[in-house]
């Protein structure tokens, strides 16, 4: 039963509604909520802290029963504020920082970065660029650490083999714009492969590389992260680390339901395992 005075709706607060990763998460959240007779209200932070803050205030004002939230960064103060208002929440992709503070559902991001790194090293790539959004978000840092650890376990100093290009946002426009920074230093220092923190960046980067006359994977390999539908629709197909997006949404909503049914419910952390999907955007270094 819902806590008294609360509406029959739950919020789904996403980091960027234009990212198709969230469409599939939303489908899982919605299916699970429908089973409990709860309506899902979608709110978008657009990767901006002030918008996230406005959205959590709206949720509290509307007396939402609870919320599934992917915070814009590792700062959970907006979620703690929600708790004080008596609104339950489950965090997505914040397993480390939400530990002991609230329920979370995430995917093993370190394992994903490690799998991508091993794949590239196995293909003979020794100069790899990590193209990423802000390091202030947990999943990005963990993916990067996984990549570094792949070099270390192969007996290579990651500092000498991995370069980072950090962008302010995780969208395709930023990926395309990053092409200059990725290629900086000329052909001799150019990376042999680029591992992107999500598919959005990777798809934009592939477009940018094409405009520079570079061929993927002949001149440069590209790996993404998420396995959105588009990864299989572009040519060449994008090699990427698949996340169980639908299951993430379902699990988050299931946890939220336990919170709503039993406010004394102990905080749980659910962790899924990602899986590398190899397509045409990666090839052996020649
Ligand atoms: O929201 C940014 C990224 O975090 C998504 O593309 C997905 O990778 C998620 O885990």
TrEMBL record:
Entry superkingdom: Bacteria
Molecular function as annotated in GO: DNA binding
Keyword list, A-Z: DNA-binding, Transcription, Transcription regulation
Protein name: LacI family DNA-binding transcriptional regulator
Record organism: Nocardiopsis tropica
């Amino acid at each position: 039963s819902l806590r008294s005075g609360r509406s029959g709706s739950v919020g789904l607060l996403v980091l960027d509604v234009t990212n198709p990763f969230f469409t599939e998460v939303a489908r899982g959240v919605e299916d699970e909520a429908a089973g409990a007779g709860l309506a899902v209200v979608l709110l978008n932070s657009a990767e901006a802290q002030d918008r996230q803050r406005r959205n959590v205030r709206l949720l509290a004002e509307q007396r939402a029963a609870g919320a599934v939230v992917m915070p814009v960064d590792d700062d959970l103060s907006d979620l703690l504020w929600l708790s004080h208002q008596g609104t339950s929440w489950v965090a997505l992709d914040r397993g480390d920082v939400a530990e002991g503070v609230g329920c979370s559902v995430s995917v093993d991001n370190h394992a994903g970065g490690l799998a991508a790194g091993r794949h590239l090293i196995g293909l003979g790539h020794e100069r790899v660029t990590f193209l990423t959004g802000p390091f202030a978000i947990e999943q990005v840092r963990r993916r990067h650490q996984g990549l570094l650890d792949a070099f270390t376990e192969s007996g290579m100093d990651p500092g000498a083999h991995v370069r980072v290009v950090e962008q302010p946002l995780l969208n395709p426009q930023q990926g395309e714009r990053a092409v200059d920074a990725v290629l900086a230093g000329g052909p001799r220092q150019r990376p042999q492969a680029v591992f992107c923190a999500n598919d959005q960046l990777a798809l934009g980067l592939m477009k940018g590389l094409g405009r520079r006359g570079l061929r993927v994977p002949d001149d440069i390999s590209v790996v993404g992260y998420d396995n959105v539908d588009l990864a299989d629709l572009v040519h060449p197909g994008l090699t990427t680390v698949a996340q169980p997006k639908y299951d993430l949404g379902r699990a988050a909503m299931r946890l939220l339901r336990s919170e709503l049914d039993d406010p004394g419910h102990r905080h749980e952390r659910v962790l899924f395992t990602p899986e590398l999907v190899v397509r045409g955007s990666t090839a052996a270094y020649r």
